[in-house]
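User: Predict the complex with nicotinamide-adenine-dinucleotide.
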Amino acid sequence: MKNILITGGTGFIGSHTCIELIKKGHKLTILDSLVNSKKEIINLIKKIVDKDIPKVSENIELKVGDIRDLNFLEEVFKANLKKKQRFDGVIHFCGLKSVNDSVKKPIEYWDVNVLGTINLVKLMIKYECFTLVFSSSATVYGNPKKNPIKEDSYIYPISTYGLTKSTTESFLLDIYRQYSCKLKIAILRYFNPVGAHESGLMGEWPVGVPNNIFPLLNFAATGINKTFQIYGNDWPTKDGTCIRDYIHVMDIATGHVSALSYLLGNKAQIITLNLGTGKGTSVLELVKTYQIVNKVRFKIDFIQRREGDIVEAVADNLLAIEKLNWKPKKSIQDMCRDGYKWQKNFLLGMRN
Ligand SMILES: NC(=O)c1ccc[n+]([C@@H]2O[C@H](COP(=O)([O-])OP(=O)(O)OC[C@H]3O[C@@H](n4cnc5c(N)ncnc54)[C@H](O)[C@@H]3O)[C@@H](O)[C@H]2O)c1
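Assistant: Here is the predicted structure with nicotinamide-adenine-dinucleotide placed in the model:
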């Protein structure tokens, strides 16, 4: 059993990863300000894990607070020490993630994404925790010259969000230089995580108006929104819509479990890995598959291209497969089915 700190653990990817980590027998301290997630997620995580292993959820603790608050963060590390424990590792999900929002509120994005990570790493070093898995993003590649994108491709983010991620990566690389005999860091660049836990008991549950594609598909499918909007049908692709590498959130979750165990079992290093399926799907293909798999119909509106969008981003995932002994297993159909199941079973129930 390892003692792991999960920042942003009540968020979309964090919560699904917690399930897999608990199943592997780890003890988790989740830190989250709940700015984009709900406290109730903890109960959903507990419900899912206790089904498989009774009472295993006793190994989860939630600390509510802001990662920018150094005193609060230090209390989390100190509380652990009082129990004569040390964190064996940190998975750092916490961050602000909307490309559009980041352009409107750049200071907030720099503050949370970059300063938040600096605070965390400062305390990790002070309290002698040297293993870190960091949530980065394919947005660091900007508009890639070539697809699929390899990890050593040119880094040229075109949004504030992407810049905060590439800057954090540079910060970690630089800190690693000073602590190269101790630090173990995995930078994971996710492509497009979607879907939900296969039970339909947990999924993406953002605060306020959603930005991401699956909550919006779910809203269209259940009549909360009248239509589903696609940004542009004049891109140079087979159907005119953008191409993305959608990956099931549970495949992302198992990727983190593998990355953590890879780091814990290896010598000090910093490694950067793409987490994607390596397969491109157009937005229109995704929407149509969602409609077919779930037997739902809704109107699709094609609207103007969004500023900052790129035509195609597909991962070269061979390095992650080789290093992590991991492979994405779920199909686009699985992503569509599980994402809708969550909306239908849970969110609609909550509204009624
Ligand atoms: N979802 C994606 O499409 C995607 C793609 C690439 C990278 N990422 C990155 O992965 C990470 C997790 O993404 P997600 O989709 O789960 O996002 P999310 O918004 O669902 O989860 C992030 C969590 O961080 C918390 N948080 C935000 N600011 C905080 C602060 N100042 N202090 C403490 N907690 C704070 C939020 O409340 C939320 O629970 C993020 O760093 C994101 O940038 C996400």
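The chain has a mean pLDDT of 95.
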